[in-house]
Amino acid sequence: MAATQVSADRRPDVAVMPGGVAPRPLSLTPVAWIARDGMKLVDWVVQGRKLGVMGRSAAWWIGDWLRYGNLEYGEKYMRAARITGYDVQSLMNMVYVASHFDASRRRETLSWSHHSEVAALPREQQERWLDRASDRTLAVRCLRDELRRARRRAVAEQAEAQASGEAQAPVAPPEPPLDATLAHAEPAADDHSVVCPDCGRRFEPDEPEGQEGTEGQTGPEGPENAAPAAIAAVA
After folding, report:
1. What span, in angstroms and rounded, lies between the C-alpha atoms of 65 and 67?
2. Which residues lie closer than 8 Å to 130 by C-beta, 6 or more apart?
3. How far is 121 from 136, CA to CA, in rounded Å?
4. Cβ–Cβ under 8 Å, residues 168 and 162
5. For 33-42, 102-111, 122-131, which range has the lowest pLDDT when averaged over its residues?
């Protein structure tokens, strides 16, 4: 069979085929997905599935790739930033999350950002929270909210124990709540919480920048903001 030849004008959507010119189904650029007119529905669906896998998997792939490079060739964050186009902090986040979840423990039904929310917890707690997120189809924001509530509850219990004269103990890692009563409870008169449109759970809006402590300060979904601050130790 004759090999396909790219046309002389090197247009990305046209290829010279034996017997004539046939348009390619689509072309990709760094900033665009371009389909030809008349793409069949089945082809559009296939493309969507491929793009979905690529989007959900990219952070895992890059994290594993950079972990390998660091182990084999020494720390390569600056060089990896030039190669991939990602900033160093984003790459550190990807490596941090990848290093805390072996491939066998990564949930295909949950996003990379779900995993990043619990990466700093002990392994048993990671599994419990991921189970909860999967069973209840929690959006990342809802999972983050429940983690914050659990942390605050643990801090409040410690403060109460100290006030009652009991021996001081370190704050335990947050446990998933036994039920969703807190999340679905009717708001109090002075409650400023809002309901997540993705999963119906209630959460408190973020405090203005500079007024909230380091606890739970996680930015928008994505590797550039999702991993804990402790990733600095990876560098």
Report:
1. 6
2. 107, 110, 114, 115, 118
3. 20
4. yes
5. 33-42
| Contact status, residue 125 vs residue 131, Cβ threshold 8 Å | no
* Partners of 16 in beta bridges: 5, 21
For residue 134, which amino acid is it?
A: S
Question: Which element (helix H / strand E) includes 193?
Answer: none
Q: What is the tens place of the pLDDT at every residue in 57-76?
A: 999 999 999 999 999 999 88
Question: Domain residue spans in the chain?
Answer: 5-30, 56-135
Q: Mean of the pLDDT values across residues 86-99?
A: 96
CA distance 171 to 66: 34
What per-residue string of b and e applies to 113-149 under the rule 16 or more CB within 10 Å gives b? Answer: bbbbbbbbbeeebbebbbebbeebebbbbbbbbbbbb
The letter for the amino acid at 51 is L
Q: Which residue has the tokens 């449109």?
A: 197
H-helix or E-strand containing 110?
none
Taking the C-alpha atoms of residue 235 and residue 231, their distance in angstroms, rounded to an integer, is 8
Average pLDDT over residues 12-34: 65
In 3D space, the residue among 228, 67, 73 whose CA is nearest the CA of residue 147 turns out to be: 228
List the alpha helices (DSSP H) in the chain.
Answer: 41-73, 77-84, 88-100, 112-118, 123-135, 140-163, 181-184
**Cα(129)–Cα(96) distance, rounded to whole angstroms?**
18
* 181-198 pLDDT, tens digit each: 333 333 444 445 544 544
